[in-house]
Amino acid sequence: MNSDYRMVYLLVLLCLILCRTTYSQVQNDDLIEQILESMAPSLSEDHDYSEILEHLSNYRRSPLNINLASKEQLQELFFISPVQVKSILSHREENGLFIDVLELQSVPGFDLQTLRWLLNFIVVLPPGELKSVSFKKLIMKAEHDLMMRFGRVLEKQSGFSSSSLSESNYAGSAMRMFTRYRYNFSNVLFASVNMEKDAGEPLSFSKGGRGFDFYSANISFRGNGIVRKVIAGDYALQFGQGLSMWAGAGFGKGANLSTIAKHDVGLRPYSSVNESLFMRGIAGTFKLKAISFTPFYSGRRIDAGITESGLEISSIQVNGLHRTKTEILNKNAISQRVYGANFQYNSGDLSAGITAYRTQFSIPFAEGKSLYQKYNFKGAILTNASMNYSYTFRNSYFFGETAHSLNSGFAFLNGLLSGLAPPVSLVLLYRNYERNYHSFFNQGLAEASNAVNERGFYSGLAIKFNRQWELYTYSDFFRFPWLKFRVDSPSSGYELFGQIIYTPGKLFKLIGRFRQQIKEENTEDSGPGLDIVDKQNLRVEMTYKLSNDFSIRNRAEIVRYREGTQNPELGFLSSQDIIYDPIGSKISGNFRFAIFETSGFNTRIYSYENDVLYSYSVPAYQGKGVRFYINGRYTISRGTDLWLRYALISYANQEVIGSGGDQINGNKRSDIKVQLRFQF
Q1: Which of 21, 230, 480, 620 yields a CA-CA distance of 20 to 30 A from 593?
Q2: Which residues have a Cβ under 8 Å from the Cβ of 373 and sit 6 or more positions away?
Q3: Predicted model pTM
């Protein structure tokens, strides 16, 4: 492996020589990474972060005018709590318009870290107004953003070894392609188009071909009168605490305790390339005094596995991949219609809402064959209804939701977020999701993948001892009253989390984090009873700003996994990041070098990586080896930017990487991305 190390260091040296001057994009990436990792302590490659990345990047580029920002717009900044949103609006109402962003220091309820983050996404401007609109202005005065991204794995994968389509061979090329367009006129009229092809999916523009595998588009309007929002095309709905209707991105447990209380932004355009978490149709939000009304309709085809009879649904496919014979056969196999409405009452400190909708499928779901699937949804029509509330009293924020799937179960959630004192915040939350509760758009706080068959109590505490020391901690105790996959009896568990931050000055930051998860699973020998599974993660991270241009970040993480009376499994990851970010230049760059050794799948370690704009990478470090990536941006001219990213992972004592169509014969896997963006 010595030759690999030499190649890695030569590339690193070349990057540093080339990066004599740079642009602040890297600083932007680092900021968003900090926010993401504070909101989700265990980032995973299964979660879709692209929508959140685009949202924050857009507000970074076009900051929100805090003198005009509505409650819904402030809630789109996911990292600020409902109490902090209320504090900003109350301060503006009582004291008039903000004169300077630093005036936020006098707004109660803000800690120093959140305030530093917020200042990157807001601006203070006097109120403006939308003047007369003409077709010429719609074209010439609007902001246009066109971006194209290409990428591929450089090594040959087994799925591309033959041109014939089968379960082991892919229908298309190894190239990944993505094109997106954004239109913005005065933050009032918007348009969005996404086109994507994953590796292995066919791309054909010839007769009968549909070009890209996935298309998404919408046109939206945002106003300040009775008509607040109208969207035609793809959109997302987020109401209450996510028990009944929450399509799109969302967070749960994390170091940032405010994410426990979800920001129900209601209706918004859908901009992600995730092919399952969205609606397609038309929706609008209309407001008269204190009451908002949001009717919606969605009709589209979705991927699904069908039983041999062809008359029932065996499973819903959500990965969005259409490469193999079966994946292509399951594509758009069934139709789904969703229609309903939300009523919301907002007056002062009180907010209350009612949501009701129906989901219809073209054919019914089949009955589960295993005992743990006894209470799964069966049929073709599901009706959901829910009530949600939130109330702010002084420094306390009460929130909750009650949801019901007609003719089956209920789900309940109630919580409190309170500022006990300026440096101390408390979060309490109780949840009870019945085993026969059903919703296809359910993202309530849960230990399991969705809010069903679970009871739990969460408590969190944040303490800011002074400007240098901060402590974040939570505990979550949960129980599953019915069986689960690989758990053949009722089970229970808990999760403990603690993070301490030491910031002696602007140049240095030290973070220590510990997380323990205790669950019960079937024994390895399939005997009676359950084994206790204990997983512990310990991470230490140090960030140091060497100069105005250079920052370094060191991270070390250890994982310990033990199931029952078996010997513990261990995993280790150590990474070194160098960030180079002087302001006002054309070239930017960052890179990472990491070494890792884990005993297997159970001790794999996920780590967020910097990527090209609006993209993300959270690979699983598993086995033994080294990983390296280099990420750079070059501003060709005003409004034209080029990104390049190269990543390499090399395993020791391993002759095969991956499985199925992704298998590589060898011990190295490298990936390259090229992205071009035009703004005009």
Answers
A1: 21
A2: 367
A3: 0.87
